[in-house]
Amino acid sequence: MALTLVVDDPIAIYSGMVPGFVAGQYARHELEIDVRRLAARAGARLIEARALRVDPRRRQLELEGHPTLTYDLASLDVGSSVAGLELPGVREHALSTRPMVRFVRRMHELIDRARVRLPGRPFRAVVVGAGAGGVELGLCLERRLAREGAGPVEMSLLEAGTRILAGAPSGLVRRVQQVAAARGIRLSCGARVQAVEPGQLRLEGDQTLPFEALLWVTGAVGVALVRDSELPQDERGFVRVRSTFEVVGHDGLLAVGDCATFEAFPDLPKAGVHAVRSGRVLDHNLRARLRGERLRAYRPQRDFLTLLNLGDGTALGAKWGISFRGRWAMRWKDHLDRRFVEAFQ
Ligand SMILES: Cc1cc2nc3c(=O)[nH]c(=O)nc-3n(C[C@H](O)[C@H](O)[C@H](O)COP(=O)(O)OP(=O)(O)OC[C@H]3O[C@@H](n4cnc5c(N)ncnc54)[C@H](O)[C@@H]3O)c2cc1C
After folding, report:
1. Measured distance CA(11)–CA(199) in Å, rounded
2. Which of 110-124 are b and which e, b meaning 16 or more Cβ less than 10 Å from the residue's Cβ?
3. Spatial separation of the C-alpha atoms in residues 203 and 294, rounded to whole Å
4. Residue bearing the CA closest to ligand 1, atom 26
5. What is the pLDDT of residues 230-249, one digit of tens each?
6. Could you tell which of 4, 6, 7, 15 is best to mutate to test the pocket of ligand 1, judged by most ligand atoms within 8 Å of the CB?
7. Considering only CA atoms, which of 93, 12, 16, 2 is closest in space to residue 337?
């Protein structure tokens, strides 16, 4: 048997520590996973190339700048992209969280801009998208800029929906609102961006909002590989899979993590918790397929622990509808995150 791993970048980023990196709590190497070393340990051939298309009937994977691969059994784990990148000016003027390796590599440019601007002038940072990722990044960036910038910081979080942290317990939402109010961070719901121009956002209703730095954290949509392939997919561009990760209607192809949507749980949030927990079941199912044995079903946990880094040495958490905040919560998050990432480093 020959095992091949295809990745577009040999460095994988552990997203759980990205807000802490933005806050200046972690160095870049602490959240990076060297995929080359992992592949070598697993005895897998590594191909560093972007996968362009999968043809599930011919069992072929088309690669950029590399000969097409033919497979007997394949698993897609290509993650997600960010919604709204096609709006005018977003790719040119905003820093989007996907691809995450690019986000992390370019963060220093933003911090450098805040350091060298004219003293006394406020540095206006805007985060578009106030789900868990946007809120955490906004709060962490605000602390970093307050500490390292050359003057006052004006931070705004814009959300197109009617509330921040959609789906989160109301106690957690209230605590975030309190933290934002105490730091002078503006939270605006019902604010839909139409276009980004150099130094300003154009919002629905023809309002404008100036910025020096713009983060784009608008939630997950499917990646080009899925959109460009003849795969069963939902309206957001995620591959439709059974609870065994088998792609609906295609033997020999599985999909996991953000890029897949379970037929049985179409509303399951795109979260690393599920991607990570899927690993064991995927491992079992790939081996079972090769041996002609029964595949296992993945049963997603509905309620998982949420821990948001607030960038000031504290974290906010929620579980079973109960929310909490403290330095101890941040120490706990740090411990869990480091334990996870170090296992792969
Ligand atoms: C700022 C931020 C913080 C987050 N924090 C948390 C958290 O604390 N807890 C949590 O549960 N979730 C969190 N998430 C969500 C979490 O990051 C995702 O759910 C998780 O990364 C999904 O894992 P994945 O393996 O499916 O995809 P990814 O981790 O995105 O991995 C996909 C990989 O595929 C590669 N790839 C993509 N396209 C191609 C291609 N065409 N060819 C070859 N390779 C390709 C990518 O480079 C990447 O390495 C966070 C998200 C963000 C944006």
Report:
1. 31
2. bbeebeeeeeeeebb
3. 52
4. 257
5. 999 999 999 999 999 999 99
6. 15
7. 16
* Ligand 1 atom at minimum distance from 257 CA: 26
Of the chain, the end-to-end C-alpha distance in Å amounts to 26
Is the model's pLDDT at 320 over the cut of 90? no
* Span 268-272, average pLDDT: 92
The CB density around residue 285, as the number of other CB atoms within 10 Å, is 24
Q: Which atom belonging to ligand 1 lies closest to the Cα atom of 217?
A: 53
Q: Could you tell me the pTM of the whole model?
A: 0.95
Integer-rounded Cα Rg, in Å, for the chain is 21
Residue with CA nearest ligand 1 atom 7: 16
Least Cα distance to 107 among 188, 34, 20, 39 occurs for 20
Structural domains in the chain plus CATH codes: 4-81+221-291 (3.50.50.60), 82-219 (3.50.50.60)
As given in the structure block, the two tokens for residue 104 are: 């992390």
Residue with the smallest CA separation from ligand 1 atom 28 is 79
Percent of the chain with pLDDT over 70: 99
Lining residues, ligand 1, CB within 6 Å: 6-9, 12, 15-16, 18-19, 50-51, 77-79, 97, 99, 133, 137, 223, 225, 257-259, 270-273, 275
* 253 CA to centre of ligand 1 in angstroms: 20
d(CA 28, CA 299): 34
